[in-house]
Amino acid sequence: MAAGDTSVSICADALILLGAKPISSFNDGTDEANTADRLYPNVRDSALMMYPWTFAYKKVLLSRLITTPVTEWKYEYQLPGDRLGNPRAMYTTSDASARPSKEWEVQGDKLLTNETTVYVDYPYQTPEFAMPQSFVQFMKYMMAWHLAYPITEQQDKAAYWQSIAVGSPGENFRGGYFRVAANIDSQGQPNQVIEDYSLVAARY
Fold first, then answer.
1. Does residue 59 share a domain with residue 119?
2. Opening angle at CA 128, ends 134 and 42, nearest 5
3. How far, in Å, CA of 69 to CA of 110, rounded?
């Protein structure tokens, strides 16, 4: 994990990459601090949702609500407030060998199903101290890209850092350092069967 890294330090390093003055706080009162403070949360959440990063998932037991859905489903469960997007998979047990269920769907901030016990794997708003160094570096490049034009007013500099962060349109923006970070994250991980992904596991 990237001990010592914070949202401020990531933005400060991104500003250094742009040749700008680094910040020591989002409350510095400078244009750099104000812009970084405004942009960082959305850039972070977007980066966390770009790929099923192993460090950015939780498995939790959901609480069943006393209300019932006005649909074909019997029960509804409250989804966690720190989630990013929909769950990746739903299980009816915490057993490590359990296979995901396909009998569920998401409506708003609720998960609907006929199951009486529900565990979900979901991407969450991961704190910086829990991010590995490779992802922190990726975040610095992402912030350099998004800060480049507001801070330097140079579109070519923004395009340069975009290519460093995610590659070119020809790579479907899955190149650059994103590819490096994703490859590092996948090392040592078991191969995932396609039914583990929400696009297949979720019932829409």
1. yes
2. 95
3. 9
What separation in angstroms does the CA of 168 have from each of 49, 67, 86, 119, 149?
Answer: 19, 48, 28, 38, 18
Closest Cα partner for 152 from 35, 43, 38, 48? 35
Q: Which of 80, 103, 125 is the last residue of a domain?
A: 125
Same domain, 46 and 137: yes
Q: Is the pTM value of this prediction over 0.70?
A: yes
What is the per-residue pLDDT across 129-142, written as a single tens digit (0 to 9) for each? 999 999 999 999 99
pLDDT digits (tens, 9 = 90+) for 112-169: 999 999 999 999 999 999 999 999 999 999 999 999 999 999 999 999 999 999 999 8
Report the domain count for the chain: 2
Q: Judge if 20 and 120 occupy the same domain.
A: no
> Are both 70 and 110 inside the same structural domain?
yes
Whether the CB-CB separation of 65 and 71 falls below 8 Å is answered with no
